[in-house]
Design goal:
Keywords: NADP, Oxidoreductase. InterPro entries: AKR, Aldo/ket_reductase_CS, NAD(P)_OxRdtase_dom_sf, NADP_OxRdtase_dom. With about 260 residues, this protein is an alpha/beta fold. The chain has 10 helices and 10 strands. The strands form 2 sheets. An 8-stranded parallel sheet has the order 3-4-5-6-7-8-9-10. Strands 1-2 form a two-stranded antiparallel ribbon. Helix 1 packs parallel to helix 2 and helix 7 packs across helix 8. The protein is globular and about 55 Å long.
């Protein structure tokens, strides 16, 4: 599978988002995704499913080193004294000795960013996370984070799809060697009814959602679509056998606005 690189991290271009997946459904979807060829699984403390993600990983039979696992620290654990303990609790729920990527889930203005990033760097130095990064950081916060963090930041994970411009954030990530990871990449299903995407998809015998994910991958963006349907898992990863034209890419990029979350 294609990968997106960010300061030493090699992040598979398509992953499985697990927001709102719970219990046996979560474990089953993770297991099936890995058996279908996914090698990138995204979770978070606040999703309350790290335990089930770990169960799905083990049930799949895929070797641990072949899967890129991301989790995120919630904002209430951003003080230095809390962050390492919180990371260890995530590892215990996942039943892993380390994650591939540990992110700060959202900015938290109540705790100095330098304090939080210093603690995040120490988590990496302690071997609890192979890479560290941020999520939902705008350009100004990316600049502040890069300047304050003693370890390289691998990525910024942000909402991104054809309806929402993120060119400035993507450019900031590229400037600092960071990868860009897109959550809600099919706009919570909205793209499935998009006529322009469907028309483009007809030319390639692909769905509107597949066109959307391909548009992201061709921008060197990693996308983590979430689904609870087994049939969608195959569709979402089946995007590496076609390539959108320059005109297609331009047309899709023209759809978006800066305020379309």
């Amino acid at each position: 599978m294609n990968v997106v690189e960010g300061n030493g991290a090699r992040i598979p271009a398509i992953g499985l988002g697990t927001w709102e997946l719970r219990g046996r459904t979560c474990a089953r979807i993770v297991e099936q995704a890995l058996r279908l060829g996914y090698r990138h699984i995204d979770t978070a403390q606040i999703y309350d499913n790290e335990r089930e993600v770990g169960e799905g990983l083990r049930a799949s039979g895929i070797k641990r080193d072949d899967v890129f696992v991301t989790t995120k620290v919630w904002t209430t654990h951003f003080m230095a004294k809390d962050l390492e303990r919180s990371a260890k609790e995530s590892l215990a729920r996942l039943r892993l000795t380390e994650v591939d990527l540990l992110l700060l889930h959202w900015p938290n203005a109540q705790v100095p960013l330098a304090e939080t990033l210093g603690a995040l760097a120490r988590v990496r130095q302690a071997g609890l996370a192979r890479h560290i990064g941020v999520s939902n950081f705008n350009v100004a916060l990316i600049e502040e984070a890069v300047a304050a963090c003693p370890e390289p930041l691998a990525c910024d994970q942000v909402e991104y799809h054809p309806y929402l411009h993120q060119a400035d954030v993507i450019e900031a990530c590229r400037r600092h060697g960071m990868a860009f990871v897109a959550y809600s990449p099919i706009a919570k299903g909205r793209v499935k009814g998009d006529r322009a995407l469907a028309r483009i998809g007809d030319r390639y015998r692909k769905s509107a959602a597949q066109v959307c994910l391909r548009w992201l991958v061709q921008q060197n963006v990693s996308a983590i679509p979430r689904t609870s349907k087994l049939e969608r898992l195959q569709e979402n990863i089946d995007i590496f056998d076609f390539e959108l034209s320059v005109d297609d890419m331009r047309e899709i990029s023209a759809i978006g606005r800066a305020d379309a979350r």
